[in-house]
Amino acid sequence: MGLTGSSAALRGFRSVQRLAYECAEAVAAQLRPGVTEREAARMQREWLRERGVRDWFHLPFAWFGDRTAFAGFRVPLQFFPTNRELAPGMPFILDLAPVHGGHTADVGYSGSLGPNAVHDRLMRDLRVHRELILREVRERRPLREIYEDVERLMVRQGYHNRHRAYPFGVIAHRVDRVRERRLAPHVFGFGTQSLKGLAKDALRGHREGWSPLWSPHRFSEHPPRPGLWAVEPHLGFRGTGAKFEELLVVTDSRDEEESAFWLDDDLPHVRRWAEAEADRELAADGAQGAVQGREPEKGRVA
Amino acid sequence: MSEWGGAAVRERWVRTAGVELCVAELGDAGQPTVVLLHGYPDSKEVWAEVASRLAERFHVVLYDVRGHGRSTAPKPLKGGFTLEKLTDDFLAVVDAVSPDRPVHLVGHDWGSVQGWEFTTVERTEGRIASFTSLSGPSLDHFGHWINGRLRRPTPRRAGQLLGQTAKSWYVYLLHTPVLPELAWRGPLGARWPAILRRLEKVPGDGYPTASLGDDAAHGAWLYRDNVRARLRRPRADAYAHAPVQLITPAGDAFLSPSLYDDLDRWVPQLLRRTIDARHWVPRTRPDQLAAWIGEFVLAHEDGTPVAEIVPDGAYADRFAGRLVLITGAGSGIGRATAFAFAEAGARIVAADVDAEGAATTAELCRMIGAAEAWAEAVDVADEEAMEKFAERVAASYGVVDVLVNNAGIGLSGPFLDTSAADWRRVLDVNLWGVIHGCRLFGRQMAERGQGGHIVNTASAAAYAPSRALPAYATSKAAVLMLSECLRAELAGQGIGVSAVCPGFVHTNITATTRFAGVSGDEEQRRRKSAHRWYGKRNYPAEKVAEAVLRAVARNQAVVPVTPEARGSRLLARFAPRALRAIARVEPKL
Question: Which of A112, A238, A298 is the best substitution to test chain B (most B C-beta atoms within 10 A)?
Fold first, then answer.
């Protein structure tokens, strides 16, 4: 494998992931009532093309309203952007996976156009999933069991597991370096180079007893495999969905901290949780006096 | 000065062209004025129960329509009851009781027919702040409704027309001369209270008043003076100039709900409500009526919205503001049911032995439209705890309108391996939990006498035997039979009972099911395996919740939900031997 040990490679992945999140934040800031999913997807594509992205793990997706919870999704074609228009209060998700300099990122960004209490709560409750996944990966629990633990936690929180709607019900998939070619065609929204990499992994994994897809099925009954995993827990609640997606680095190190870690902790959703935490502490400190003007911001959220 | 339900009634007389109207007032005159208008054959006392409840918050005004109760009748009677003259009366009363502020109007039956006239004619504009209509259409809208169906009689629309034509039999009778008067002043008048009690299930508490015979005889002219004239030439400009709340009783013998299909065309601000009751709602459902009227009045008085989050779920017209108690609401079907009722705007009590789960449910309910939601920790198997719980609920939240006895646990394994303790636990929760719920909350419903509904979660296992589930199936079969018997017993009191039989639904019941006769590890393994199988089936609890709401709305007796539950119910009826053969199969986990 080799790549995971090399800090230069990780730096490359980290910078693409940052770029992808920057894109998501820039596009989210431009969303207005009446913008359609197709337009939002095109905005992401153009923003990244301008910054040199030529290949994709998958083309950008955008889901608005109850499509964020994949309501009524039966066939994979329904994931593709539609002409659904954004309206005030609506939740949205941008999901983009650019390849840049041979490094792949796959990120998911949830927000809402104006205040949406349900969406805020979903985002807040995603935090424990990020912690749970890292903890159990470090414990080297079989991926299928981690999957089930995440699902159980979602149900206890009162929500549905909506990543079950993805192909094979995956909560995560492996990503890798991609060779840069002059031509970067894609089929069904997925870059052929990346698909090739995934297929190779699948073949090798099949022989060795692991899978590049982290699913609820028997083929995920194995401990975490070193490499980069794009992890995307996706919560759904009555027509509102929220997710994050980011890269988890798994290594073969014996040191627990080194054995698995999130590629980057400076991401919009992580920052938001930290801010909320700081707000809570501040509110607790000033609990005696009236803490005015510290209403949690209810605008656009990540 | 007399008293209605503890509220003092002040009387005064208002004189209009040729008649004197008897007007009653309750409550603080500084509060918003609510005018309650009675129907036919009634007098203002029909509103007594509702008025006394509203008087705590509002200035309540009632009057006897001319020729009814203690108001005098016009002379001659013929031509004295036109809607124009009734509008004169209304304006005279309103000018007397609330000269400076517009009033909130509530009408039942003919009171509602009048209300529609007042709300749609020009000269009352600015005098009406809101109108709540109960069982009485606008004659103009009705006329257009008939014309539209005559012009384009599709099978469905023709059916609606025929249905309403049949329901209007009494209107034709009232158009015959003299006979109705003779009947009302004679035998019909004498028997009327008993007829109402029997057919309409109104409480026997001294109403109607002694003036009934004369009221009904005079009131026949309401029909004769208006119905033919208006239905033949309905006004083309009968648009409402005030917001309207339409409350439709689902079991009205005289008006079909389809009458209001086109109403959005006439009313820019329309709020629809449906109530499970017969025609005389002010007498049979005063609590619910007073709550809905109060809410609507406040919404259009000081802008207090009816609800912060507008409930948009299925049956929002029916369950908004109703008190729904669900046991086992901390997870699975119970939680999904709580959410579905929350989306319909109900007030939710989420009860569960798992306090944290119940709290999460209640919190989420509030976010998606529940008017209010509370969490309660209670073990349904504990008789004493349930008794205290029932008292607490009645004292803090009121009488439950819909009870969902859903809490249950799973137990699998051969009969010969099932211990007495296992049996006791499953029966305690699955059967005794339901018995306690029905016993305690059912009694509260019956004592209140304003209807209600009980839903018990049984199971497809209640009629489909299986060697794998002897104890569980037994407990659920008992729940099914209990529901059927209770349904028979409570039907007379307007309380419906439904048994819901879900089938294989993906919830965490599989993760907590006890497997008798195996080691702890093996039990864990089977739980996991069962959970995965149910996950593969992946039938969502939300669909069961939909079935629960539908069962309440339609008062269904037994509701199998999943296809396998429906299929096995068919087999149980028509091919029980096939079902018995299936029962012998041992599921491999």
Answer: A238
Q: What is the pLDDT of residues B477-527, one digit of tens each?
A: 999 999 999 999 999 899 999 999 999 999 888 888 999 989 999 999 999
Containing domain of residue A239, as a range?
Answer: 7-282
**What pairs with residue B373 in β-bridges?**
B348
Q: For residue B364, count other CB atoms closer than 10 A to its CB.
A: 23
Percent of chain B with pLDDT over 90: 85
In a domain, A175, yes or no: yes
ipTM above 0.85, yes or no: yes
Which residues neighbour B264 within 8 Å (Cβ) at sequence distance 6 or greater?
Answer: B270
Nearest-neighbour CA in chain A from B362: distance (Å): 10
Cα separation, B194 vs B208, in Å, equals 10
Interval B260-270: pLDDT, tens: 998 999 999 99
One fold for B2-299 and B319-583: yes
The answer to the question of residue A18 being in a domain is: yes
CB contact under 8 A, B343 and A238: yes
Q: Which of B207, B472, B534, B539 is catalytic?
A: B472
Residue carrying structure tokens 């609506």? A90
pTM (global) more than 0.80: yes
A144 to chain B: nearest residue by CA? Answer: B532
Residue A76 lies in a domain: yes
The rounded distance, in Å, linking the Cα atoms of A295 and B6 is 46
Domains in chain A, number = 1
**Are B335 and A158 an interchain contact pair (Cβ–Cβ within 8 Å)?**
yes
CB B366 within 8 A of CB B372: yes
For chain A, the helix, strand and coil percentages under 3-state DSSP, each to the nearest 5: 45, 20, 35
**CATH class for the domain made up of B319-583:** alpha beta
Q: Looking at the domain assignment, is residue A289 inside a domain?
A: no
We find that the CATH architecture of domain B2-299 is: 3-Layer(aba) Sandwich (3.40)
d(CA B264, CA B516): 59
All residue ranges of chain A with pLDDT < 70 are: 1-5, 286-302
The confidence band for B307, taking pLDDT boundaries of 50, 70 and 90, is low
Domain ranges of chain B: 2-299, 319-583
